């Protein structure tokens, strides 16, 4: 084992142990929380190393989705991987409508749906391809104007409107909490997403499968798990510092 491989395995083990401890502290089963590695700006070789280490520590040798923010990266990395490697990509960043055609064939999931115009464009492309796509609605729970996402006051109606798009398999909600050392402010973002999910469930919006809550990153994922996250998106804690673009 090389020094680099050893460092990857140590980071992965540390994250896996922290995830387990957070689930235990919250009284939750580890299987309730999906770990999505965020591989943006990291190489395919690094992704393979993390993938192997996660398979070793978890005992799960099946397919795993890696979060990416940029269409060009997803297309390039997909071309360097073989399907049997078990590595899929989820787009977790903002998507412009003019890039829908390029990215849709290369992703298994989209976690940043935030406009009906984008929903319509995705639906057209997916219809052309004869397939569906798992999507999450991105909600701006912090109210920060610089962030993407549907506002909390608009989110319920937005989710109702998605029923018109048969190719979009809406699985739940995603948010990026406020970047703050104040845990109460961060937790308030997570709680707002949970409350929205519960309202949608209560009104039977989009059926009974509406359950996914993608929230929490390297700096706050234990808190997100305590507040109900079902997916945590972890980059730096698994891959190490992200290189400059």
Automatic annotation (TrEMBL):
- CDD domains this protein is in? PLPDE_III_YBL036c_like
Q: Which cofactor does it need?
A: pyridoxal 5'-phosphate
Gene3D superfamilies linked: Alanine racemase (3.20.20.10)
Keyword annotations for this protein, in alphabetical order, are: Pyridoxal phosphate
Single GO term (MF): pyridoxal phosphate binding
Residues where N6-(pyridoxal phosphate)lysine is found: 40
Q: Which residues form a coiled coil?
A: none
Listed InterPro entries: Ala_racemase_N (IPR001608), PLP-binding_barrel (IPR029066), PyrdxlP_homeostasis (IPR011078)
Alanine racemase N-terminal domain boundaries: 32-243
- Give me the segments passing through the membrane: none
Checking Pfam families in the record gives: Ala_racemase_N (PF01168)
Purpose: Pyridoxal 5'-phosphate (PLP)-binding protein, which is involved in PLP homeostasis.
Q: Which family does it belong to?
A: Belongs to the pyridoxal phosphate-binding protein YggS/PROSC family.
State what protein this is by name.
Pyridoxal phosphate homeostasis protein
């Amino acid at each position: 084992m090389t020094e680099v491989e050893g460092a990857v395995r140590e980071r992965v083990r540390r994250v896996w142990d922290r995830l387990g401890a957070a689930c235990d502290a919250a009284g939750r089963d580890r299987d309730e929380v999906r770990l999505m590695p965020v591989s943006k700006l990291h190489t395919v070789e690094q992704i393979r190393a993390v993938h192997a280490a996660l398979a070793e520590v978890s005992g799960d040798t099946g397919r795993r989705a890696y979060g990416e923010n940029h269409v060009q990266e997803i297309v390039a990395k997909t071309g360097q991987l073989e399907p049997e490697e078990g590595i899929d990509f989820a787009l977790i960043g903002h998507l412009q409508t003019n890039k829908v055609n390029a990215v849709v064939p290369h992703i298994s999931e989209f976690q940043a749906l935030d406009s009906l115009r984008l929903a319509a464009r995705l639906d057209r492309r997916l219809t052309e391809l004869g397939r569906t796509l798992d999507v999450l609605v991105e909600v701006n729970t912090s109210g920060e104007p610089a962030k993407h996402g549907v506002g909390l006051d608009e989110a319920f109606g937005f989710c109702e409107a998605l029923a018109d798009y048969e190719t979009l398999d809406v699985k739940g909600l995603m948010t990026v909490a406020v970047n703050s050392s104040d845990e109460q402010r961060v937790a308030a973002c997570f709680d707002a997403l949970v409350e929205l999910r519960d309202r949608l469930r209560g009104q039977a919006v989009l059926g009974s499968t509406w359950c996914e809550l993608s929230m929490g990153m390297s700096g706050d994922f234990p808190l997100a798990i305590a507040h109900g996250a079902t997916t945590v998106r972890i980059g730096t804690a698994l891959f190490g510092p992200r290189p400059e673009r």
